[in-house]
Amino acid sequence: MKAIECRGLTKKYGTQTALDDLSFVIEKNKFYGLLGRNGAGKTTLLHILNGELSQSSGTILVDGEAPYENRNALQKVCFIKEGQSFKKVARVEDVCLVASIFYPNWDQDFAEELLETFNLNLKKSVKELSKGMESALGVTVGLASRAPITIFDEPYIGMDAVARQKFYDLLLEEYTECPRTFILSTHLIDEVSKLFEEVIMIDQGKLLLHKNVEQLREEAFYLSGEIKAVESIGANKKIISKEIFGQSNTLGVYGRLSDEERKKAIQLNVSIEHMPLQKLMIYLTSLKEKEKHKDAKH
Ligand SMILES: Nc1ncnc2c1ncn2[C@@H]1O[C@H](COP(=O)(O)OP(=O)(O)OP(=O)(O)O)[C@@H](O)[C@H]1O
Asked: The CATH number of 216-297 is which of 3.30.70, 3.30.420, 3.40.50, 3.90.930?
């Protein structure tokens, strides 16, 4: 079942192309990580998804409807942005009241439970909150909205490591108890990658990768061992990184190993290790950059 569908989605700001012919499907009740370097186009995509921006061309459907200025579609989406700017004079309870009016599935008891967890007082005004506390208020709204599509775009600005961990634990608990579509856009990839079921990577407005995380675990790995042995296993594979330490070599590989190749790796004392998502993104985006420079030279 589709929660979101993009076809040829393109967004231009004047001559700047922020999204370039993006096509993908986000399925219902799955947890997505939206990843990409600064300026990749993530926020632009999320603003279009949330009906705040219109695309230059292509289509986007949220639960089958175009989201731009469409209240019906938007009630299904709760979008918590980086540095969410709630009205400074509003009290925490006012923020919850407004959210309860907008989101049909709002759960006030859950909201109050979360506020207590984050030590937020209902009577405090937003201007009295620290940066991290304001982010915790955003996280509370996102979770208690119980919106079928809940999106967090770097929602933890100012939250310390303990508060962030609390947020990830709550997110996992909520996803397990009350499944819905979650999209988390983040630069702290390895902190949260355990939550993701699918990963969408964007680079310079284009889709770089859309994969199931389990599949990625099998397809992105390091081979380490004696130089010749490692190179024989990595031959004919897409090599995305290479490090040589004396007589040993570590290759970052993006591809699949057959059972035969795995057996051979054991025989040759070549270790196979999972590559963290953050590293994979760094390698893939820098490879793209190198390819672009090469094309520009020719
Ligand atoms: N309002 C705007 N006017 C002109 N250009 C814009 C505007 N908003 C974004 N851009 C450009 O569009 C591109 C994508 O920006 P966007 O904010 O979507 O990236 P992002 O992936 O969210 O980046 P970050 O991780 O830094 O938040 C960038 O090149 C940016 O300079």
From this structure: 3.30.70
> What DSSP line would sit under 166-200, residue for residue?
HHHHHHHHHHHHS--EEEEE-S-HHHHGGG-SEEE
Q: Tell which wins on pLDDT, 246 or 175.
A: 175
| Closest atom of ligand 1 relative to the 187 alpha carbon | 25
ipTM over 0.85? The verdict is yes
Secondary structure of residue 256 in the 3-state scheme: coil
Taking each helix axis from N to C end, the angle separating 227-234 and 259-267, rounded to the nearest 10 degrees, works out to 180
- Residue 68 Cα to ligand 1 middle (Å): 19
pLDDT tens digits for range 218-268 = 899 999 999 999 999 999 899 999 998 888 899 999 999 999 999 999 999
Would you say 270 and 233 are in contact if contact means Cβ atoms under 8 Å apart? yes
Q: Is 176 in the pocket of ligand 1 (CB under 6 A)?
A: no
Coil, strand or helix at 158? coil
Whole-angstrom Cα distance, residue 141 to residue 80? 8
48 CA to centre of own chain: 16
pTM, 2 dp: 0.93
CATH number for the segment(s) 2-204 = 3.40.50.300
Q: Give the C-alpha separation, 36 to 19, whole Å.
A: 12
Question: Region 2-13: what's the mean pLDDT?
Answer: 97
Instruction: Spell out where the chain has E strands.
Output: 2-13, 16-27, 31-35, 57-62, 77-80, 149-153, 181-185, 198-203, 206-212, 220-226, 238-245, 248-254, 271-274
Spacing, Cα 246 to ligand 1 middle (Å): 43
The pLDDT of residue 266 is: 95
Distance of CA 14 to the CA centre of its chain: 27
* Domain positions in the chain: 2-204, 216-297
